Amino acid sequence: MSKSLLVLGGSGSLGSEIVRFFKSNGWKTISVDFRKSDIAEISLTITSSNEDQMKSIENELTSQNIKVDALVCAAGGWTGGDSNSDGYLDSVKKMIDMNLYSAFGAAFLGAKLLKPNGLIVLTGSLASIKPTSFMIAYGATKAATHHIVKSLAQPDSGLPANSTAVCILPQTLDTPANRSAMAGANFNDWTPLTEVAEKLYEWSEKVDTRPTSGSLIGFETKNKSTTWAPICLFK
Ligand code: NAD
Prior knowledge:
Helix content is 37%, strand content 22%. The protein is an alpha/beta fold. Strands 3-2-1-4-5-6-7-8 form an 8-stranded mixed beta sheet, sandwiched between helices. Bound molecules: nicotinamide-adenine-dinucleotide.
């Protein structure tokens, strides 16, 4: 029987590449996003990752007897601005909805739908391990995502037995949106999406390659070479 992957944010740049990569390796793929996925076998659209809609996703997949081996939250978004910017509090709400509510929603779906020994991966941000005054809402919601993963790794977190929770912390991903927003940048220093999909696939397939549960794994690319390393917040 094929293994199953659920990607929250499966229609985004990173999410759709993860769906594509796992599908091409024989996994059944499920995307949950604000937008329909043309790649995933099952595409469920939502308008919020709130209680009602996450429960309806749980009910829909449970009615089809679907449990997943891996669950990735590739949902999120970015808004810049400091605490004196125009629209600052609106940007806070937007970042909470996109980055934080999605991470909490993924944790909810993980608790309900992951198989024992499953993998849940949330997406934080390397920039957010330090103060981010110029993008304060983005940084704060991503730092909270790092905290959620640490909490999910505790034995009483609600995840099924022997789950592994990992947070990946990208620096800059090589996405179409970044290419159009930063056309003059050095793309050799951005991480190709396939490299991220490959790493998540390795962790999903081979339990012994997974980082310790609760790990924050940062990665950055220099001259087309990507380095992955655990991030220690407290020494
Ligand atoms: P993207 O904007 O291309 O895709 C994000 C997807 O998430 C979109 O399809 C959107 O509809 C969906 N989404 C947003 N909020 C959601 C919610 N609450 N529930 C379900 N779906 C939701 O983003 P990307 O560039 O592919 O980035 C992927 C992840 O990596 C995000 O978490 C992002 O914050 C993070 N990240 C990206 C970069 C980068 O350089 N692009 C850098 C650091 C971190």
